[in-house]
Specification:
100 residues, alpha+beta, Ribosomal Protein L30, Chain: A, four-stranded antiparallel β-sheet, 40% helix
Length: 100
């Protein structure tokens, strides 16, 4: 069985899209997921329900402002969430960061 990361990598290769995998670990309440709203309503809802979400973007340049806003949200409001963001393009991992 393929891992979630492997599925994201394979999808990026098959579609040519910039695929972003977001994984969280929550040590608090569902309210803390509001910090992830820059990733969009659907991704935020998926994170609050499953602690994993995917985004399909056209480029890395779309992702950076989202991550910057999430970091600002976490710093401003505090959070007991850990988040790992990994991006794949053409089947290759091209970006990874972790926020604690």
């Amino acid at each position: 069985m393929a891992s979630i990361s492997e599925l994201a990598r394979l999808h990026s290769r098959a579609t040519g899209k910039y695929i972003v995998l977001i994984q969280t670990s929550n040590a608090g309440t569902g309210r803390r997921y509001e910090a992830f709203l820059p990733f969009g309503d659907e991704a935020t809802e998926a994170l609050s329900e499953e602690d994993v979400a995917f985004l399909s973007l056209d480029s890395h340049e779309e992702l950076i402002p989202m991550i910057q806003q999430v970091v600002e949200n976490v710093e401003a409001n505090g959070s007991l969430l850990t988040c790992e963001v990994t991006a794949f393009e053409d089947g290759e991992q091209v970006y990874q960061t972790q926020m604690d």
